[in-house]
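Colleagues,

For the teaching module next term, I've prepared a clean inverse folding example: a structure given as tokens, and then the sequence designed for it. I'd like students to try predicting residues themselves before seeing the answer, so please don't circulate the second half yet.
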């Protein structure tokens, strides 16, 4: 792992050696059958609060992926677990789920569901007042983003049909598994995975809070029976599916009552998304409009069931073999999701040299166990005294930001010491950076890694030097490696 092995061999700074980076390749469940998906899916587990706090960098606001941000009643964070698996962590408000056991039982039940059309739930946490759900991470945004807030091009018609079909498949699977109630199905609950395929969030299979709240406060989109009785029934899910169909057809939020008026008055063209510019088959659009109308009937018994949805939508797919990423005009997301970094890692990532210097000063030599005491046990000679003085003058120069003298003193110290010091190499690396000598800084940061192979500081300084050299991909790898070792060290101390 790290720069010593393969990341910068082309700079001739170190010998080649096979990289020992952990294999984070994720199998592609979309190409396999359901049994294969279930075999690959992570086992549901109960996480500790410390694990999830660490995964989300202390529930940092920088990790929030809820489209409403911190204003959302239940905030969703991007997280990275110890095994480098990316996850979404939903943190419920303090008043939610007062009964911890009830929460865990419900989460475990939902966690048993596994399907390639679902964003599978992989864990939960119930400690103190905290209630958290952990699900697979979807890197390609929500249906809401692609329909209502697109930047370059609108969601194409064939992709909208695919969303309608895949979500019906997800609901059908939930129905088969006796999970017939889905709370507040809407465009925010549909997310796109790394292949661009739409999936239905499993978060909606659990109520939002202890009061049984099942829908957002927008009454215009709430099933009539819920307004009358406060109860959710399986047919309520069909009604909500109808509102999603309206979103897909119109590309905007249209209250069901208004949409039904347009349909009754045969003003279907007014309902259709103008950004599609007519790029759809009129008969197919008409069938989806008619299906939406049926789903939105005020009487639950008139709406049909999920099998009916599938029979209507399945034949409308005309480009089944075309990959979703191609249809959406996306490329596979190869950009590494920003790692959950320590303060030093963050400072190196944003190339904040002042902050890096401050942190290195505060850290001192404490990461080298026994390093400061080693000299005191040696035979006291003039050479030892000279070494101590050289170290002292180097540290003073480093503290006072006299980086040229720091390089001089630390270089003398390296030549005098019987065993190298990771901290000295780290400080000299930073001093080289401050003098515009990035390659020498990279070499010293690598030497610091030789001294302490799993020292996060060495990796972070390598990242900083690589960034200065314009090698951003390698720099990101170093940040990831440093963060991984930070997590490993934290877990070792905790245990």
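(Answer key — instructors only)
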């Amino acid at each position: 792992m790290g720069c010593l092995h393969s990341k910068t061999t082309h700079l001739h700074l170190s010998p080649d050696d096979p990289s020992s980076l952990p294999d984070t390749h994720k199998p592609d469940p979309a190409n396999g059958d359901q049994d294969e998906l279930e075999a690959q899916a992570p086992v549901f587990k109960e996480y500790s609060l410390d694990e999830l706090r660490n995964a989300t960098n202390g529930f940092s606001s920088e990790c929030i992926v809820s489209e409403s941000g911190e204003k959302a009643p239940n905030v969703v964070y991007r997280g990275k677990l110890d095994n480098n698996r990316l996850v979404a962590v939903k943190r419920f408000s303090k008043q939610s789920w007062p009964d911890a056991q009830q929460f865990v039982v419900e989460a475990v039940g939902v966690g048993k569901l596994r399907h390639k059309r679902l964003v599978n739930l992989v864990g939960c946490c119930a400690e103190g007042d905290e209630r958290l759900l952990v699900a697979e991470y979807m890197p390609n945004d929500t249906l809401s983003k692609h329909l209502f807030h697109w930047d370059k091009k609108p969601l194409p018609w064939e992709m909208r049909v695919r969303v309608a079909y895949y979500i019906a498949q997800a609901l059908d699977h939930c129905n088969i598994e006796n999970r017939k109630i889905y709370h507040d199905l809407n465009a925010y609950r549909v997310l796109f995975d790394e292949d661009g395929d739409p999936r239905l969030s499993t978060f909606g299979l659990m109520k939002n809070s202890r009061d049984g709240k099942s829908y957002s406060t927008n009454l215009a989109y709430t099933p009539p029976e819920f307004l009358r009785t406060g109860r959710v029934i399986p047919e309520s899910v069909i009604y909500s599916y109808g509102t999603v169909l309206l979103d897909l057809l119109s590309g905007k939020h249209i209250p069901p009552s208004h949409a039904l008026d347009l349909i009754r008055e045969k003003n279907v063209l007014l309902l259709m998304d103008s950004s599609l510019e007519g790029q759809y088959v009129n008969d197919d659009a008409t069938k989806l409009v008619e299906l939406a109308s049926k789903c939105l009937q005020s009487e639950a018994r008139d709406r049909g069931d999920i099998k009916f949805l599938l029979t209507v939508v399945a034949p409308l797919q005309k480009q089944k073999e075309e990959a979703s990423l191609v249809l959406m005009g996306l490329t596979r997301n190869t950009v590494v999701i920003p790692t959950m970094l320590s303060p030093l890692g963050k400072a190196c990532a944003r190339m904040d040299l002042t902050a890096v210097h401050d942190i290195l000063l505060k850290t001192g030599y404490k990461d080298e166990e026994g390093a400061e005491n080693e000299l005191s046990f040696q035979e006291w000679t003039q050479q030892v005294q000279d070494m101590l003085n050289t170290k002292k003058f180097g540290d003073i120069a480093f503290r006072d930001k006299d980086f040229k003298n720091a390089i001089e003193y630390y270089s003398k110290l390296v030549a005098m010491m019987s065993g190298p010091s990771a901290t000295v190499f780290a400080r000299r690396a930073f001093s080289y950076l401050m003098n515009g000598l990035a390659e020498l800084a990279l070499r010293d940061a690598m030497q610091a890694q030789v001294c302490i192979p799993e020292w996060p500081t060495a990796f972070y300084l390598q990242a900083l030097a690589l960034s200065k050299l314009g090698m951003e991909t390698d720099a990101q790898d170093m940040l990831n490696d440093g963060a991984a070792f930070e997590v490993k060290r934290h877990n070792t101390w905790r245990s």
